[in-house]
Each structure stands twice: as C-alpha cells, then as structure tokens.
Design goal:
Distance between the termini: 38 Å
Oligomer: single chain
Bound molecules: adenosine-5'-triphosphate, manganese (II) ion
Strand order of the largest sheet: 8-12-13-18-17-16-15-14
Structural class: alpha+beta
Number of domains: 2
Largest sheet: 8 strands, mixed
C-alpha cells in the first residue's frame, strides 16, 4: 500500500495502485443506491479526490454517514479511472478511519461565500479554505523561485540581522527592542537647569544592548557590506515597520527580498528587477496552474491575461520628472494634487501603470529631497538614482537605487539629512576603502502575491497578518 497525497492520487499514473489517503472531508453526498461520495482534500493541491464509500463498509452507518465538512479521515482503496468529468481518478474505499469529528453546527468555515473579512477573524482555520490553500501554495512557489533565480545567477544568500542598532531610512517607523521595564525605565540625569526643567530621556546604557535597538526595516545597509566584499548577494527575511497606515497594501511585519550587487549601475539594476519579476510570474504559471486558474475564476477575471501580457512586453523606463508631467496633463482629479518634488501616492502610481502606460513601469531619477541619504546623486544635483517598479493592480512593488559610492558626496548627504555620523563610520568605511559602484532593490513578497493572485488585501496573502491593533497568535 502506497501513502499518497491527494495531488498524487489525482494523476492517471496512480490508477491500479492500492493507496492510503489522509486528509479532511470537503463534502459528503449520499447516493440513492445506498453509497456515499466523499470529496477529500489534504492541501497538496486545489483539487479533491472523490472517494466512494459503499454501504458494506463496517462503519458505514455508524460513522461514514455522519461525516461532513472538516472531519479528518484515512481512506484505503484501489485507485480507479473515473467516469466523471473533471477528474482522472476516484477511489472506492475498502476502509475508512475517522480521526476527528467537526461539529457541523459549530464548524465556522463550511458554508461557501464566507467573506475574507470574516475569515481574518479565524486565521487558524482559514488555511482549510480553497482560497487560502491556493495562496499558501503560490507563496511557497514564489519563495522557491526567488532562491532559484538568484542561486542560478551566482548570488550569495546573506542573513542580515533582524535586531539592529541602525535605522536604515531615518524614518520614524521603528519598533524598539528592549528588556527594560517600561514602568521603571532608568532615566538619564536631569538636564542642566535642575529638576523639572525638561523631559528626562531613558538611559539605554542600562538596556540589553547598552544602546537603543530596533527591529529591522530593511537589510540593505548590511547587505551592502557583503556586496562590497563578495559581489552579488541577496537577503530574504522578515521586515518590520511601525507605520500606522491602515491600508490594504501595508503590514507591520512583511517579507522582503533585497539583492545588492557590486559593479551594477541603475540600468543593470532595472534589468535585474524586470528579469526577476518575470521569472516569478513564469514559475507561478508553470508550477501552480490549477491555483492560478482558481484565482482567474474566483478572484480576478483578468489576472491570467494581465500576467501573460507582462511576460511578453518590456517594462517601460520613465524619469520621475516625465511622470509628473504626464500626471499633471492627465486631467484626472487626484486626491493628492501633483507637483514636482512630491512623493507619488498609490493613486498616481496606479494611474500611470494601469491607465496611462498599461504595463509595468519603472520610474527613476526621483527628487533628492524625498529619498534617503544613500542614493547616488545625479549631476543635476536635484535628483538621485532611485527607481520604483510600478505594476498594474498594486502600484509600487519594488523600491531601489544605485548607491552613492563617492565618500565626500555620501558624507555631505548624511550631514544634510542630519544623521549622526558617529553611528555610520562603518558605512563610510565601505567608501573609504576600495569603494565600487553598486546597486540594489527591495521587493515586497506580499505585494508580489497581491499582484500574482489578484487578491485585494495584503492581510490575506500572509499567514498571520500584523497590522495596527492586530497581532493574533
Ligand atoms: P510605500 O511607499 O508603498 O509605503 P516604501 O517606499 O515605504 O513603500 P520601500 O521602503 O522602498 O517601500 O520598500 C521596498 C518594498 O517593500 C516596497 O516596494 C514594497 O513592495 C514593500 N513594502 C514596503 N513597506 C511595506 C509594508 N508596510 N507592508 C508590505 N510591504 C511593504
Ligand atoms: Mn512605506
């Protein structure tokens, strides 16, 4: 007897095998002829195996006829060709063992049409639905193709720290990591002027790391260390941002892929980003055809045509300044009025990629003032070698840049942005000793999944979403 997954048992090659299948009942249907059909699913694929349970089974009346959605079972039987449409095989059972019952009145996910909002309140059970099973499998496929893509091209996988003392962007979006008792935190001495003259800061010298520490918002700066020694590297790990933006595109904990390459300029960086996204799409279509078909039928009727179109076309490369011009001449009533120097909002990004260009678009050469200190300054002195990749359905999916490799310019940028240079000597050392032109970018894994599946809310493409006011389990 072979222990098979449902995916294996659905293949014609399984016909004639005596098998053991284990999973959860999706539905039971009783036939007038005195036998029952069970649809069995084990998460290995979108489809079920149809199990035929004859009345002759010793537990037919006592157990089989009481099975319903959510019950767990083992089934033994001989796989046969199925006369029914839509399935190659079926399994007449010689034995059915019930492992766990699921009270039909109480089990919360048996009805079709449960909203995603409702399912978010039971994230311990939602992986048992078709949609969340499909998302989990596609997410797994994307992670594999990310590693495949980089490994095949000789990139080194580097683990950058999750706890860090440096704030990559200088943005106030950091989660603090501390073992201090907040109610009794040690305070710095009173400021000059005596008691009550000012707020006393916390004395982090007494904290675990003897200084303030945070959850990382990006592994880029540390990835640069390795790129400036080993060439082409990437990090792939969890990233944390305490941004209080309750949008369908932001999580407080998300996964980011950050390649960093020595001797890459911005054009090389764009080409890599385009090849990378196309590879992820192609692998999802090739390796998860049933799940992708499911998204097409149930979530977004345009998804397959859109992804196919993207594979066939070149990404556009458009300077920020030109994009501003297009937006201003568009006649669109945007919530945020468009002017040169502003950071683009999702509404602008989506207009450009969905309505105007109708294809993935890489915007580059952004205003220096809205971008971080490490981006390479252009000769105009006003813009930096930044790039954002915008895709239909999502907007920004990648943010990246060519990094400033010139010591003096970088140091000037840091001073201008008010950074504490003492904290960044290690970063300046990369320019002090054997500096090289280099570039990199960050791709958000969950944004990629929104884009691939057509799902509308980022909370539904990560197993356990963390958002303001919400951290279950
Ligand atoms: P946005 O403007 O959309 O907030 P960002 O400019 O802050 O994005 P970057 O700092 O460039 O984003 O991060 C690189 C990528 O990480 C983004 O392109 C996006 O795919 C992803 N990302 C950024 N913030 C989040 C978040 N809060 N939740 C999920 N993904 C995110
Ligand atoms: Mn952000």
């Amino acid at each position: 007897m072979d222990k098979l997954t449902v995916a294996q048992a659905r293949l014609e090659s399984a016909i004639g095998k005596i098998v053991l299948l284990q999973g959860w009942v999706r539905t039971r249907r009783d036939s007038k002829g005195g036998f029952s059909f069970l649809e069995l699913n084990d998460g290995s694929c979108q489809g079920n195996v149809q199990v035929i349970a004859e009345a002759a089974l010793p537990n037919y009346e006592s157990e089989v006829k009481k099975l319903h959605t959510g019950c767990s079972v083992s089934v033994e039987g001989l796989v046969k060709a199925s006369p029914a449409k839509g399935q190659a095989t079926e399994v007449p059972a010689t034995k059915i063992t019930v492992h766990g019952w699921a009270d039909a009145d109480a089990y919360p996910i048996q009805k079709k049409g449960a909203t995603f909002e409702f399912l978010r309140t039971i994230s311990h059970l939602r992986p048992r639905t078709n949609t969340f099973g499909a998302i989990a499998r596609v997410r797994n496929c994307v992670c594999k193709s990310i590693h495949d893509f980089f490994q095949e091209q000789g990139f080194l996988y580097v683990h950058t720290p999750i706890i860090t003392a440096s704030d990559c962007e200088g943005a106030g979006e950091l989660f603090k990591v501390t073992t201090l008792d907040l109610a009794k935190a040690p305070l710095l001495p009173s400021p000059p002027g005596g008691e009550g003259s000012g707020v006393r800061g916390i004395d982090f010298h007494q904290d675990f790391f003897a200084k303030p520490a945070f959850l990382t918002v990006s592994g880029q700066l540390q990835a640069e260390i390795f790129a400036c020694a080993l060439g082409k590297v990437y990090t792939f790990g969890p990233t944390f941002r305490a941004e209080n933006s309750n949008t369908p595109r932001h999580l407080a904990e998300f996964w980011m892929i950050e390649p960093e390459m020595a001797f890459y300029d911005l054009d090389d960086n764009m080409s890599l980003a385009e090849a990378f996204i196309k590879r992820i799409i192609k692998d999802a279509l090739d390796r998860c055809p049933d799940d992708m078909k499911f998204f097409q039928e149930r979530i977004d009727k345009e998804i397959l045509a859109r992804l196919d179109g993207i594979l066939k076309s070149d990404f556009l490369r458009v300077p920020y300044t030109e994009a501003i011009d297009i937006l201003q001449k568009s006649g669109q009533a945007f919530e945020f009025p468009v002017k040169w120097g502003m950071d683009l909002q999702t509404e602008h990004e989506r207009f450009l990629t969905e309505t105007h260009f109708k294809k993935p678009t890489i915007l580059f050469d952004y205003p220096r003032a809205i971008k971080p200190f490490y981006m390479r300054v252009n000769d105009d002195g006003k813009t930096v070698r930044a790039m954002d990749v915008l895709v239909p359905g999502v907007g920004e999916i990648i943010g990246g840049s060519q990094r400033e490799e010139r010591f003096d310019v970088l140091e000037g940028n840091m001073k201008e942005k008010g950074l504490n240079l003492a904290h960044y000597q290690w970063y300046l050392d990369l320019r002090r000793y054997g500096t090289v032109p280099h570039s990199g970018f960050g791709l958000g894994l969950e944004r990629t999944l929104l884009f691939l599946t057509g799902m509308a809310n980022i909370r539904d493409v990560i197993p356990f979403p963390r958002t303001p006011g919400n951290a279950e389990f």
